[in-house]
Amino acid sequence: MATYLKKTAPGIIVGLMLCTSLFAQSYKPPVFNDPDRLKKIETTYPVIDKIYREYAEQNHFPGLVYGIVMDGKLVHAGGVGYTELDSKTEANGQSEFRIASMSKSFTAMAILKLRDEGKLSLDDALYKYIPEARNMKPLTKDAPPVTIRNLLTHTAGYPEDNPWGDRQLANTDDQLIDMYRKGISFSNDPGIGYEYSNLGFATLGYIIKKVTGKSYEDYITENILRPLGMTHTYYEYTKVPKAQLAHGYRWLDGKWVEQPMLHDGSYGAMGGMITSIEDFAKYMAFHLSAWPPRDNQETGPVKRSSVREMQYPWDVNGFNVNYKTASGRSYPYASAYCYGLRWRRYIDGMTAVGHTGGLPGFGSEWTIYPEYGIGVVCFANLTYANAATVNLAVADTLIRLSGIKPRELPPSDILTQRRNELVKLLPAWNDAQASGIFAVNFFMDYFPDKLKAEATEIFNKAGKITSVGEVVPENQMRGYFIMAGEQANVKVSFTLTPENPGLIQEYHIALMPK
Hints:
Elements: H1 2-5, H2 9-23, H3 37-42, H4 45-58, E1 63-70, E2 73-84, E3 89-90, E4 97-98, H5 104-116, H6 148-153, H7 173-182, H8 198-212, H9 216-225, E5 249-252, E6 255-258, H10 268-271, E7 274-275, H11 277-289, H12 304-310, E8 315-320, E9 333-337, E10 342-346, E11 351-359, E12 362-369, E13 374-380, H13 387-402, H14 413-425, H15 442-445, H16 448-462, E14 465-468, E15 472-475, E16 478-485, E17 489-496, E18 504-512
Helix pairs in contact: 4-13, 5-8, 5-9
């Protein structure tokens, strides 16, 4: 700061204003810079409709409904086939489908809401809410107790329980507690391995009841569904208007065989929800609304930060290097489980968050792409219908065909400030040590004579500099910019320290082709 004060009186004022701006950095969230996003998406609808229609026909789906969510609303929906074959009831955006394990994220959201209200901790031991669990015998004597966080991330050590769990929907709370009383069989010690557990999410539903005094159905309905305007979402199928209820089928010996519907019970917390595309789109829009982090007033039933926490990859569990899209394009990804949600990061950096659902008679999937502000969802009434494959094909087609771009992060004021100051020093690096813009480590790691020699050589090859580009931020404290030369371009990358204001701690310069 003393450097700025070695000025005349007007200079002092300017210096103080500069210091104030540096110390009062405001967050600039990523934004969409394309006002025609929706129009571009709309041009893809005929292709999207065809993809869903052909997929349903090829895979013998009695009925399929689907939707595209963008910028806070359902922008497109469609239906193929029937929700009930005997009556030939056509499937549409208001048809009510059982969405199976897509229900899990509602249970997880309810748990986080209770956490935010101080009514439980994610690191609470399970036996705090189910005393019968205190006597569970893990595989080893040094195993930690099962926690709520373990249940949320499928790391409790319970064995994978598909398809057994799918047949437990109607079980009572007493049956659930009796299992704990008799003891649970473990496949791993808690916290060291991923095993998909429907029992774990049924247990979370019971914890909601123990904490609130209400069934998980009532608590989720009152505290999540109604605030989001999801007035046509149910757990008990007998409460659904008959004309809207999708019946479930299995394809056997060249024909559809109707499957019995199970009533709501303790395992509904893991897979019993029944909803429509129009209703579920509101939930997807809420998940998308959590991005980007920002200063706006909270308007949802759960804090935006808690929704982002739900979507975080807490339990990385796979990497598929051989994955290909429906078009045959190689598209490897890493996968993880969040809180009631699945997460993927593809080789090109695109992030996808959502969940599949499968039960006797039904299959479903939803995925949002937070950087793009879009989501896709579809429900089918065929046993374990693979909805994920067609949704990925749709999302891939939609993004590539429309040409929409992800959000762009504007550079922070301090990144722009440091760019301007670096540009003045390049390539000669004169008086760099006296500039006051470098961190204490910088000239211990970089040496002025070598910095000058490197930059001079690169600038000679680049030719006359004709323009300096804006900072391209990787985050608020790291980025790069391009200096365009007549023969080649110069890329300058830098990282700032956690100090306020941030100082340059790392720097790289490279010659780039035109």
